[in-house]
Specification:
This protein has 412 residues and is α/β, with parallel strands linked by helices. The chain has helices spanning 4-12, 16-29, 70-84, 92-101, 109-130, 134-137, 157-169, 190-208, 224-233, 251-258, 274-282, 298-311, 324-336, 386-390, and strands at 32-42, 45-54, 59-63, 145-152, 174-177, 213-217, 241-243, 265-267, 288-289, 315-316, 343-344, 367-368, 371-373. 40% of the residues lie in helices and 15% in strands. Strands 4, 5, 6, 7, 8, 9, 10, 11, 12 and 13 form a 10-stranded mixed β-sheet that branches. The protein has a 3-stranded antiparallel β-sheet with strand order 1-2-3. The chain starts with a helix and ends in a 22-residue tail after the last helix.
Length: 412
């Protein structure tokens, strides 16, 4: 015989038909009603945000990472909107697959930058709908705060030392520099920068010893031979990592370079899929995975690449050069993966970029010294002042068209 508690429970349970109706109502409310783009000038760059609105008026925000080619990404988002409207916004992984596989020519950085922004916005939506932060949707937090590395772009050795001193004073233990004369007009002489950069890095190491992790971002401007020469200039132990020294289209070139130096590589911000990342991981050609959640395919793809990296005992060191939405997405991802080193931040006292304008983004991920604090708010934890952003007219942006001293074109 059932006891009184069981009888009461059975009597209070809603009929099957009512439960089905509630589920149907929830699915209707979660349907995508609109997908739109917003390109705005924020600080020294344009930012491309994607806004996804559902039938019940809930809004999610995402950000694309393909800086300087925002119009191309926005046009792709408009294409995707044609089949996304009406879909259940909660089916995030399925939407990712349909977006990636719905054309004959799969992938590519423009497509995955668009998919990234949509994917991030869908996670923001789902977090808000379930009233949990996004990292809870990714498996929960692995850490309580998110350590970052700071960047100095000083053009002289003296400025580099001054910037590093300020960063160290404020708590940073991992610091990245750029090659000497990084922004020296539109002429870039790789050989001339190598010796200056080597001198700067040796001076930093001599001044601050082994208490900091020291890296340099070569911005894929060099050849295999030039990079090998540069690494040979470095006394052993000077550099803890060298980032993106050459372009990544040819993994075999990285394989050749890997044999010429024992300095760890940090590679991956150019990757637009798990397939690109896999080739480097499987061949041991990166020791830090520099994936970019706003380029590689959003949370859906980034978490897969992080898992692949874990298999190879490689920590992720996420690329994060954009605004508050990208930063928030990067923080949530960084919280949820076990294999993590540092997250890039461009919000230090030595960089005045203006990407995180509080008047445009009234609520952002909070920073305390060299770490980001994990938000407890639902979704990404970012508020967007859409009216104010729409008044920030984008400017025409064209990356530097660099030339070598002989007039030939080289990489930015």
């Amino acid at each position: 015989m059932p006891d009184q508690t069981q009888i009461a429970t059975q009597q209070s349970a809603p009929p099957v038909a009512a439960m089905k109706m509630r589920k149907a109502d929830a699915a209707t409310q979660a349907r995508i009603a609109e997908v739109s783009t917003l390109i705005a000038r924020v600080g020294r760059r344009n930012q491309l945000l994607v806004k996804v609105t559902t039938e019940d008026g809930l809004v999610g925000w995402g950000e694309s990472g393909l800086s300087g080619r925002e119009k191309s990404v926005a046009a792709t988002v408009d294409h995707y909107a044609g089949f996304l409207v009406g879909q259940d916004s909660r089916n995030i992984s399925r939407i990712w697959q349909e977006s990636y596989r719905s054309q004959y020519f799969e992938g590519g950085r423009v497509l995955t930058a668009a998919i990234s922004a949509i994917d991030i916005a869908l996670y923001d939506l789902l977090g808000k709908r379930l009233e949990v932060p996004v990292y809870q949707l990714l498996g929960g937090k692995q850490r309580d705060v998110i350590p970052t590395f700071g960047t100095t772009m000083g053009n002289t050795k003296e400025q580099q030392l001054k910037d590093v001193a300020l960063l160290v004073e404020q708590g940073w233990t991992c610091i990245r520099t750029y090659p000497g004369s990084f922004d020296d007009g539109d002429v870039f002489d790789p050989r001339a920068t190598l010796s200056q950069t080597a001198e700067e890095l040796m001076a930093i190491r001599a001044e601050f010893g082994n208490r900091i992790c020291l890296g340099v971002d070569m911005h894929h401007r060099y050849t295999v031979a030039e990079t090998a020469d540069f690494c040979a200039m470095m006394p052993k132990g000077t550099l803890n990592f060298i980032e993106e020294p050459i372009r990544s289209e040819t993994p075999e070139a990285y394989a050749a370079l890997r044999k010429m130096t024992d300095i760890p590589f940090a590679v991956g911000e150019e990757f637009a899929s798990k397939w690109e990342a896999a080739r480097f991981l499987d061949a041991g050609m990166t020791q830090y995975m520099r994936l970019d959640v706003s380029n590689i395919g959003g949370f859906t793809e980034a978490m897969k690449v992080a898992a692949m990296s874990e298999r190879h005992y490689v920590d992720v060191m996420p690329h994060n050069p954009l605004g508050p939405v990208c930063t928030a997405a990067s923080v949530h991802m960084s919280a949820a993966v076990p294999n993590f080193s540092w997250l890039e931040t461009r919000q230090t006292a030595v960089e005045k970029l203006g990407y995180h304008d509080a008047s445009l983004f009234p609520k952002q991920i909070e920073m305390k010294g060299p770490v980001y604090l994990l938000p407890e708010a639902p979704g990404l934890g970012v508020e967007v002042n859409e009216d104010a952003l729409r008044k920030q007219k984008p400017e025409h942006v064209e990356g530097p068209h660099l030339k070598r001293p002989d007039g030939s074109v080289t990489n930015w």
